[in-house]
Amino acid sequence: MTILIENLTFDTIIGILEHERTIPQRVQIDCTIDYSYTSTLFINYADVARMIEDTMKTEKFELIETALEVLGVTLKKHFPLIETLFLTIRKPDILQNCTVGVQKNFIF
To answer: Is 37 helix (H, G, I), strand (E, B) or coil?
Structure first.
């Protein structure tokens, strides 16, 4: 089974520049989770989305790369059924002419 969370959007502190450490900016996160579904063992996508947002807001990451690593470990810890996880974090407002981001594929 595959869970898709697309365009999860919220404001958070992320970045290394001085203004990024004080002014929240918009991020967009995509998450794809593959796992073995059964009628009694499943992953609630709302819980996953909430955990992603809560982790990003609590940790106030400097680098997107660090955020990806921490999210991967955190999601696997709380949702052990995850077999593969694909995460993308974008900062759509940091450059005027494009959206930038980083993505990672986790295989557990």
So the answer is: coil
Which residues face 47 on adjacent strands? none
End-to-end CA distance of the chain: 15
Q: Taking the CA atoms of the chain, what radius of gyration do you get in angstroms?
A: 14
The two tokens of residue 55 are: 């982790």
β-bridge pairing 82-95 and 2-12: unpaired
Q: Are 58 and 69 in contact (CB under 8 A)?
A: no
Of the candidates 71, 68, 63, 65, the residue with the CA atom closest to the CA atom of residue 17:
63
Contact 34, 83 (CB under 8 A): yes
Adjacent-strand bridge partners of 44: none
106: pLDDT confidence band, cut at 50, 70 and 90?
A: very high
Query: How far is residue 75 from each of residues 29, 52, 70, measured CA to CA in Å?
Result: 14, 8, 8
pTM of the model: 0.95
